Every structure is written in structure tokens, then in C-alpha cells.
Amino acid sequence: MSATPFYGPPFGPPPKRTRWGLIIGVVAGSLVFLCCCGGAVFFGLIASQTKPASTAAESYVDAVIAGDDAKALTYVCTASGSKASHDNFTEYVHSKGVSDGQVVNTNVTLWNLSWKATVQMELTVGSGGQESLELPLAKQDGKWKVCR
After folding, report:
1. Which of 2, 20, 22, 140 gives the lowest tally of CB atoms within 10 Å of its CB?
2. Under 8 Å CB-to-CB from 134, ≥6 apart: which residues?
3. Count of Cβ atoms closer than 10 Å to residue 18 Cβ
């Protein structure tokens, strides 16, 4: 009786090892990439709204200083109290003799799919001094409007 020659393991080739390090690395790298791209897109959206908000605030203040109430009201939102706030601001501008306004800083946020902005301005009053003004804005019908 002759013995069967031994040619290899009786149960087939050894199982392939799973490359867990590579899989985890690819998943982690993909998440980091997606977060960076999402942040860049969000930052771009905010940056694209900063200039129009600043321009609207400056145009509103310039119209009030010029005494052009009809033009100034195009920059006032329809929320309750905004017209009264506009009237108070107009009275303040004329009583203090405000002659100029410059945007110092603009902060734009997107919250619950609603654009909001806060524009900080420096007003030049009749005595030559500077006074700070903070205008809250909201996007209404696709346009930035002063909304108190």
C-alpha cells in the first residue's frame, strides 16, 4: 500500500486578509474632504451676501440723510414696527445733523433658510464727531432690507 503524497493543505488556500487600515483611511479621508468642501461652499455663500447687505444699509442711510423718504422706504422691510423705526431714525438723523455714514463691519448669517445681517456703521454728526449705528437687515423678496 502506498501513501498518498502530500501536496498542500487539505482545506484549500488560506483566506485573504481584509485591509481594514486601508478601508478606514479611505472613509476618513472622504469625510474630511466632504466637510472641507461643504465649509468652502458655505463660506462662499456668506461672502457673496456680505457686499449686497452693506450696499443696502449704506443706500438706506444715504437716502435718509438726503431726505429722500420714498427711496429710503424701499430699503425698509414690511415687518410691523419697521416703519415706526424708520421714522424715529429719520428724526434722529435730522436732529443730530448727520452728514455721512460709512459701513465699518457686516455680519451675515443664514439661519433656518433665512438670511439675516447686522451692519455696523459710523455716522458723522453735525459737530464733526462720530456715532455708531447698528442696522439689522433681512432678505425679503430677494433684496436686503432694514428690518427692526
Report:
1. 2
2. 118, 119, 120, 121
3. 8
How many Cβ atoms sit within 10 Å of the Cβ of residue 5?
A: 5
Strands 114-124 and 100-111 turn out to be antiparallel
Q: Are the beta carbons of 116 and 109 closer than 8 angstroms?
A: yes
CB atoms within 10 A of CB 64: 24
CA angle 39–40–42, rounded 5-degree value:
65
In the numeric block, the cell 472641507 is attached to: 36
Do 121 and 101 form a contact (C-beta atoms < 8 A)? yes
The ranges assigned to domains in the chain are: 27-146
Give the CATH number of domain 27-146. 3.10.450.50
pLDDT tens per residue across all 148 residues of the chain: 566 666 656 666 777 787 888 889 889 888 888 888 877 777 777 778 889 999 999 999 999 999 999 999 999 998 878 888 999 999 999 998 999 999 999 999 988 888 999 999 999 998 888 999 999 999 998 899 998 7
